[in-house]
Amino acid sequence: MKLPVLVLFILTLACAEPENAKSKTTPLQTTRDKFSYGLGYDFGPNMKHIKSGVDLQMFLRGLEDYLNEKPALVSEQERQNIRSQEFYRIGEEYIAHQKEREQKNLQDGENFLAENKTRPGVITTAGGLQYLILSEGAGPRPTPDDRLKVKYRGTFIDGKEFSNTEAQLDKSSTFLLRSAIPGWLEGFQLMRVGSKYRFFLHPNLAFGKIGQEAPAIPPNATLIYDVELLEIMTE
Known about the structure:
By secondary structure, the chain is an alpha+beta fold. 39% of the residues lie in helices and 19% in strands. It has 5 helices and 7 strands; from the N terminus they run ααααβββββαββ. Strand 3 and strand 4 form a beta hairpin. Helix 1 (3-15) crosses helix 2. The longest helix is centred in the middle third of the chain and has 41 residues, at 76-116. The radius of gyration is 25 Å and the shape is elongated. The model is unreliable at 1-5 and 11-16 (pLDDT under 50).
């Protein structure tokens, strides 16, 4: 939990209007309203992984009692004991949920790839990479030591987009091929400059069981990339 955010949040509550003074549907009219709401919203990530065990009204009541110097309704020793028990329970619950999610993502992806490999034009390599040639260029093929300039669009198997170079300033991206995820390392070596391919990546060829935070890619996600090899860059 980030201390500055927590401090600001508590200070905002200390200056806030009495409980239930404003409806949840009240429009944000003043700078104070927006400031207070923004601090509360930005505090959300600190609570995300424990929200299943927290009653928000009781959480706010505890803060309010402390700020108004009221006696605690739960002793310090009991608070410590319960906190330890609940953090452990919530942690175990979260781990179980993550494992369930990982397994579902993996199974959904493997089902998709099993069907996808039978579609016309889809080629499967010995390494498990599935790809479709959208258009073939006439330039050279890169090696792992080359730096590439590419365009790409990444989606999940449900079609939801998670990344697109069109959103970047120069509409492209550059990277050293040997530092890329396994599916890109193999796939781009198949392409000639000027080519457009579609990669279908099993999690083992993408971000695996770890996933990625930015852009947000969940554990064991099967990914689809439309890629265009623009240039093999000279140092």
